[in-house]
Amino acid sequence: MALRDVFMSLSENQLLNGMAQKYGLRMGAQSVVAGTTIPEVVETIKELNKANISCTVDNLGEFVFEKSAATAAKANILEVIQAIHDENLDAHISLKPSQLGQDIDIDFCYENLKEIVSVAHGYGIFVNFDMENYARLQSSFDLLEKLHVEYDNVGTVIQAYFFESEANIEKYKNFRLRIVKGAYKENPDVAYQSKEDIDEAYLRLIEQHLLIGKFTSIATHDHNVINHVKKFVKDNNIPNDKFEFQMLYGFRKEMQYDLAKEGYNFCTYLPFGNDWYGYFMRRLAERPQNLALVSKQVFTKKTNTVIAVGAATFLLGRLSKKSKKVKK
Ligand SMILES: Cc1cc2nc3c(=O)[nH]c(=O)nc-3n(C[C@H](O)[C@H](O)[C@H](O)COP(=O)(O)OP(=O)(O)OC[C@H]3O[C@@H](n4cnc5c(N)ncnc54)[C@H](O)[C@@H]3O)c2cc1C
Question: Considering 26, 176, 178, 199, which one is annotated as catalytic?
Answer without folding.
Answer: 178
